[in-house]
Amino acid sequence: MGTVSVMPVSWTSYAAYLTFAVVVVLIPGPDFAVVVGNTMSGGRRRGMWCAAGVASSNAVQGTAAILGLGALVVRAQPVFQIVKWVGAAYLLYLGLRLLGSAWQGRYAVPSASGGQGTRRGWRQGFVSNITNPKVLVFYVAVLPQFLNPGAGTVALALFALSHASLSLLYLLTLTAVMHRARRVLARRQVRRCLDGTTGVAMIGFGARLALERQ
């Protein structure tokens, strides 16, 4: 029976990885757009659940990378392409919905509670992230570059879950900031502008994802 390698973590490499991960997290992308859209349409609680959905997906993909499943998906081009196209289609769908909302300009008061809204927020965050192959590539191809040769499961888990935690912290902070500015953001013209901008961004992310070659 083989043994699991549990080589100690190089804290210098870990610090460099955290710095890199923070930069990656702060770059606006599909996760940012989805959380903004959910916070605007459903309030802080729904935005927080959307952020939790993104973090849950990061944890799942990080775990898949640790178990070696992520590498299999990346190398299996038909599977990888299916994931990519599903992700692109989902982002286009969400973007078109936001554009439709901006066009109509009919907004109800954001609900701070409600099981359906929170479930929808979590689902949108999870699906938009789990169908983004760039996240899986990050865990499979980028993360190992910061590990010592032969680094074990503990080191892989630490690095992967650290990225998921940083993403969650950032998106929760984003939701809180938007909630504090809700009086301004809730104005009809501001909402229409935000929905239109976020919708265009989502469609752009979806189109770029569909057109990129792996």
Automatic annotation (TrEMBL):
It is found in: Cell membrane. The keyword Glycoprotein does not apply. Keywords: Cell membrane, Membrane, Transmembrane, Transmembrane helix. This is LysE family translocator. Signal peptide: none annotated. It is a multi-pass membrane protein. The chain crosses the membrane at residues 14-36, 48-73, 79-96, 126-147, 153-172. Its main location: membrane.
